[in-house]
Amino acid sequence: MSASDHAPRDLAALLSKASVEVSSRGHQLRELPDHFPAGTEVTITFLPGDNYRHNVATAAALRRTGFNPVPHIAAREMVSREALDDFLARLVGEAAVTRILLIAGDVAAAKGPYRSSLDVAAGGSIEAHGFARVSVAGHPEGHPFLAAAPALKALEAWRDWGRRTSIRVDVVTQFCFEAAPILAWIGELEAHGIELPVIVGLAGPASPATLTKFALRCGVGNSMRALRGQIGRFGRLLTDTGPDDVMRSLRSAPASATAPIAGFHLFPFGGLRKAAEWSRCYQREALRQGEQAASRAAAQNP
Fold it and tell me: Which of 67, 86, 130, 191 is the most buried (most CB within 10 A)?
């Protein structure tokens, strides 16, 4: 292993191109341009009971505003093959969507023929509609409806599907409150030969109470202890907690451990403004630290 394998990557630079999530309801669209630059990739949730035509309208509104819409496709919410095909066709025709994020969906029982995101892929609709990129969900701390071994098998299948179809496949992770589960999970992917780019999900700044609510809803597990530790450090629910600790640990990890990380995705639980401000502030601080380190190195090696 070379010395470069131990050098930390400048992961903070990837924050400038981080994607961000908005609700399918569309109520955040008006404030989005105030906080994120045009061209930002914006994922659109698909909540239980959503009408996919509403999601198409949200995607079209994002495109008109200058953003790149990335709609979630919730497999278990699709009531028929015809509904899925119509959804995909409208996304392309009305919103010029080129990338989708496939999830199983937050319901235990399928409403139609699709039990999983792989069932959607098997039907051939993604290739037929010409999507260039497909993102799938990754869960470093596990998923309540899917055990670890089947989850890895599913990602192996996605790797093979991407090779077969020549469509770019990447993995967007659920957020965690510490980096250890993310790094361990990336190690598992590499051990199984799952060479897919990883987009790390970050929980944007929010009160610990808000973060706890979303963590319980999303099945985030062991790293909850890190959130409790931050509450202890910063006081009872008096301050917003951002993903600084996660970023710090990822940036200090060996380059070999973070090589698959291709970007970041922001979950703005505390709002778009707070997520955007945190990202900009963190990038500025990382740049300042980098310049200081370079100055010290130059002084030591004139």
Answer: 67
Fold of 12-300: TIM Barrel (3.20.20)
Q: Which of 39, 186, 146 shows the shortest CA–CA distance to 98? A: 39
Calpha distance 71→52 (Å, rounded): 10
The pLDDT assigned to 142 comes to: 79
Give the tens place of pLDDT for each residue, 31-78: 999 999 999 999 999 989 899 999 999 999 999 999 999 999 999 999
CB of 265 within 8 A of CB of 18?
yes
pLDDT tens across 114-157, in order?
Answer: 999 999 999 999 999 999 999 999 999 876 666 667 889 999 99
| 3-state secondary structure labels for all residues of the chain | CCHHHHCCCCHHHHHHHCEEEECCCCCCCCCHHHHCCCCCEEEECCCCCCCHHHHHHHHHHHHHHCCEEEEEEEHHHCCCHHHHHHHHHHHHHHHCCCEEEEECCCCCCCCCCCCCHHHHHHCCHHHHCCCCEEEEEECCCCECCECHHHHHHHHHHHHHHHHHHCCEEEEEECCCCCCHHHHHHHHHHHHCCCCCCEEEEEECCECHHHHHHHHHHHCCCCCHHHHHHHHHHHCCCCCCECCHHHHHHHHHCCHHHHCCEEEEEEECCCCHHHHHHHHHHHHHHHHHHHHHHHHHHHHHCC
pTM for this entry = 0.88
Strand-pair partners of 173: 138
Domain locations in the chain as residue ranges: 12-300
Report pLDDT digits (tens) over 242-258: 899 999 999 999 999 99
